[in-house]
Amino acid sequence: MRIATWNVNSVRQRMDNLQAWLTERQPDIVCLQEIKCVDEAFPREPLEALGYNVAVHGQKTFNGVALLSKLPFDEVKLGLHGGDGDVQARFLEALVSTKDGVVRVVSLYLPNGNPAPGNKYEYKLKWMDRLANFLRERLKLEEPLVLAGDFNVIPTPADARRPEAWVKDALFLPPTREKFRALLNLGLTDAIRAVSDASDLYTFWDYQAGAWAKDDGIRIDHLLLSPQAADRLTGAGIDRHVRGWDKPSDHVPVFVDLDIAGR
DNA sequence: ATGGCCAATATGATTGGA
Questions:
Q1: For chain A, how many structural domains are there in total?
Q2: Which residues 190-209 in chain A have a CB closer than 7 A to strand B?
């Protein structure tokens, strides 16, 4: 089974790229972020025509997450617990059944947090605490769980071409990295780091300042695996070539292969 | 020379992104 994540930066602007990439990479489950539309405006039909079931947690203008799955959804849950009055669409959880048992998948869009310090950074840190609380509960189930999305976290200096440029940024400040490590310390595996020690693995290149041409990237899109998923990890990769396509997102897809029956 | 973009919106300027 192949599970992927991609911050598409507007799904309606990215349909050509999305359809081309789905055909090329053939993922079984896809976590999308920053769809930037309400549920009714999500382009369901062309994706269903490619064989995907669709679950959407949208919002007008900003944020928005979705899940595509070749397997039907047994359960779908919108939103992250603990956000009293939080209306931002950033979290979508689903359970699917396979011949090898259930798989739980989360598509998440963790808050950016800039400028830091400030209200937005406080919201980011609280959101990360809520995510840790969610994980503590779900890990008790001892299921294969894939927590995938745009975490807006640069975990270590090796995950940026120019780490010095990010030292005062909400994506790289010590409290951000501490809370990301706290997630991993609950027992999760960073899939890309499990398969490679390379220092040039990036998933985002800014539209500005020729970042792509200079390979001035950062790794902020992650797939974190529960022990039951990590034990079945057979591969992982970043589709960086997609950043070179026409009308690209500023993020590229990241995927894992698990030794679990797919379709 | 340290800047250069992109998307959505009661839209031609502002907000958010990272």
A1: 1
A2: 204, 206-209
